[in-house]
Amino acid sequence: MMYSQFLATGGLWLSLSGTEILVDPGPGCIVQASKRKLKAEKLDAIILSHRHLDHSADVNIMVEAMTQGGLKRHGRLFAPADALEPEPVIFSYIRELIDGVETLEEGKSYSIGDISFSTPVKHIHPVETYGLVFRTAEHTFSHITDTRYFEGLSQHYGGELLIINVVFLEPHTPSDYPGMPIDHLSVPDVKCIIMELKPKVAILTHFGMSMWRAKPWEIAQRLSEKTGVRVIAARDGMKFELSKLDEG
Ligand SMILES: [Zn+2]
Question: Which end of the chain has the least Cβ crowding within 10 Å, N or C?
């Protein structure tokens, strides 16, 4: 998907009671953000769930844009240790433009303005990867990023909204994808997670080609029927208002 750009790989932009946070700026983030008039200089922080290219390729340009090339020094970057050492995804001269870099660790909490977020559990993925649980004054929501399904995964997450990365339509075994990382969730995994967590709304995102061919909006509809939870397939540029969580 990243190579074809059938779907954009720009990440998630959170605007939470005046705090602006960018999660996983993949390739094209700067283009997608400017196209949608999202102002990088307003960002307070950038979070990388992990170092894979589809989640981090535009981190340097986004940090530089956040500080307007260093003129407005501010903001922080949060990333797992292996995104920072021994082969940092961020150049050292760009790293100097911001207020700080914080290392994500399992079971820790962090704050950005009035927002807090935690990284409850290390995921099963080829590089160090965390999902995120955000807490604002009014809402709690989770983002389950790249991972293989594992026993107890969902018990680390919760809240009214679940944003979940679903790459595969069906579970894959290594022989289906020789030499490819397969540590990703598929639709049956996501169905279990939604049934266990019962959020008010679940947003599916990060689709691979098998998902795209199967029409994610139809899969979301079927998952809604099976789970009783409102399931939405993300689209490029889609906006979701937390204040509308209770709307049917
Ligand atoms: Zn990944």
Answer: C
Query: What's the 145 CA to ligand 1 centre distance in angstroms?
Result: 8
Residues 6+ apart with CB under 8 A from 141: 133, 134, 159, 160, 161, 162, 163, 199, 242
Distance 111 CA to ligand 1 centre (A): 24
The 10s digit of each residue's pLDDT in 88-142 is 999 999 999 999 999 999 999 999 999 999 999 999 999 999 999 999 999 999 9
CA angle, 138 then 143 then 148, to 5° = 155
243 alpha carbon to ligand 1 midpoint, in Å?
30
Neighbouring residues of 17: CB distance < 8 A, sequence distance ≥ 6: 114, 115, 136, 137, 138
Q: In this predicted model, what pLDDT tens digit does every residue of 7-44 receive, in sequence order? A: 999 999 999 989 999 999 999 999 999 999 999 999 99
